[in-house]
Amino acid sequence: MSQQTTHATVPGIAGPGTSPGLYVAFTATAAFVAALAASLSLMLAAPPWAMFMGWVAYFTRKPSLAEGLRTFACILAGLSLGACATMAVGALGPALGSLVLPAVVFATGFAVIATRGLPLLNNLLGYFIGLITFFAAHPEPTLGSIGELAGATGLGSIAGWAAQAIERHLRRVIA
């Protein structure tokens, strides 16, 4: 279960080799984008914490539009698995009693961890961030609740991409 390169070693991300002035400018830009996304979350009545789950997920892989889209697909699958797991606990609870939670966790964990062998949608952290987001929100397991959480995490993913894209563009202009 290896992870790809993180943002700390990716060219175009504020880090080693960046002058102090540029580092502060890039940091302020990312903070501004985060504040803007949080404000937009509130205006859309989406939970800002769920938006930040999408932001965090975006940076679990090398920042790029393609990786961001693949990670978002993993988040969506995780949200959906969370809804399915919630329904499974309710449906199987009467038959399994106190064993229902371990059984559903095993099945859900098995399904997620098995995705590490997929060629594209293999971001385990994306799946788990989707699951955690669903469970933390405590929604009813409906398409509507999955859609609302997908919107919030999608906004965060877009904001993460925007922060990274702005920095990459500025580096090209400055260079």
Give a verbal description of the structure.
The chain has 175 residues and is mainly alpha-helical. The protein has one domain (12-174). The protein is 73% helix and 0% strand. It has six helices and no strands. The chain has helices at 20-43, 48-58, 65-96, 100-114, 124-137, 143-174. Helix 1 (20-43) packs across helix 2 (48-58) and helix 2 (48-58) crosses helix 6.
Write the layout of secondary structure elements.
Blueprint: H1 20-43, H2 48-58, H3 65-96, H4 100-114, H5 124-137, H6 143-174
Helix pairs in contact: 1-2, 1-6, 2-5, 2-6, 3-4, 3-5, 3-6
Low-confidence stretches: 1-8
Structural class by sheet pairing and helices: mainly alpha
* N-to-C span: 37 Å
Q: Considering DSSP H and I runs of 4 or more, what fraction of the residues is helical? A: over 70%
Tally the helices: what do you get? 6
Q: How many β strands by DSSP?
A: 0
Major β-sheet annotation: none
Q: Radius of gyration in whole Å, from Cα?
A: 18 Å
Which of globular, elongated, flat, extended, rod-shaped describes the shape? Answer: elongated
The helix-strand sequence is HHHHHH
Overall mean pLDDT stands at: 91
Q: What is the beta-strand fraction?
A: under 5%
How many domain units?
Answer: 1
